[in-house]
Amino acid sequence: MPGDINGDGRLFGGQLMQWIDIVAAVVARRHSGRDVTTACIDRLEFLHPALVNSTLTLIGRITYVGRTSMEVRVDSFVEALSGERHLVNVAYLVMVAIDEKGNPAVVPALAPETAEEQALFEAGRERARLRKARTAGA
């Protein structure tokens, strides 16, 4: 949309952030079966710009779960007409499942099945530990 593009012909970073948050929420809702809220954007790394008329593809997946929270990684790609994809953004968000009263709700465990999923899970566990340490020190 024209309103999503800045004067340099690039997608506004804030617009991409909004879409990333939506994707993370959809992924977390599917995993938990509950409504969710964004607790934290742990990391958001802009690697390359998304230019006007680019096709943008966002792919999210759960990388780690706690008792009531889920870490979601969202990769954003610019896709050429040939189908070739180029990574433009990587983001990690923490989503919390909520019950009907708006209180945190327990989420299903995550069972990594491949070596890649296990590596993502272990890295997510470490990020969760670091987030807790930052919060404790605040």
Give a verbal description of the structure.
It is a single chain. A four-stranded antiparallel sheet has the order 1-4-3-2. It is globular and about 45 Å long. A hairpin with a 3-residue loop joins strand 2 (55-65) and strand 3 (69-79). The protein has a single domain (2-137), classed as Thiol Ester Dehydrase, Chain A (Roll). The longest helix has 23 residues, at 115-137. It is 31% helix and 35% strand. By secondary structure, the chain is of the alpha+beta class.
Q: How is the main sheet built?
A: 4 strands, antiparallel
Low-confidence stretches: none
CATH topology: Thiol Ester Dehydrase, Chain A
Structural class: alpha+beta
Number of domain units: 1
Average pLDDT, rounded to a whole number, is 93
Total count of helical runs of at least 4 residues: 2
Oligomer: single chain
Keywords: Hydrolase
Domain HotDog ACOT-type: 1-101
Protein name: Acyl-CoA thioesterase
Family: Belongs to the acyl coenzyme A hydrolase family.
Summarize the structure.
With 138 residues, the protein is an alpha+beta fold.
Fold blueprint:
Elements: H1 13-32, E1 35-46, E2 55-65, E3 69-79, E4 85-98, H2 115-137
Antiparallel strand pairs: 1-4, 2-3, 3-4
What labels would you give this structure?
138 residues; HotDog_dom_sf; Thiol Ester Dehydrase, Chain A; 2 helices; hydrolase; 4-stranded antiparallel sheet; Acyl-CoA thioesterase; long-chain fatty acyl-CoA hydrolase activity
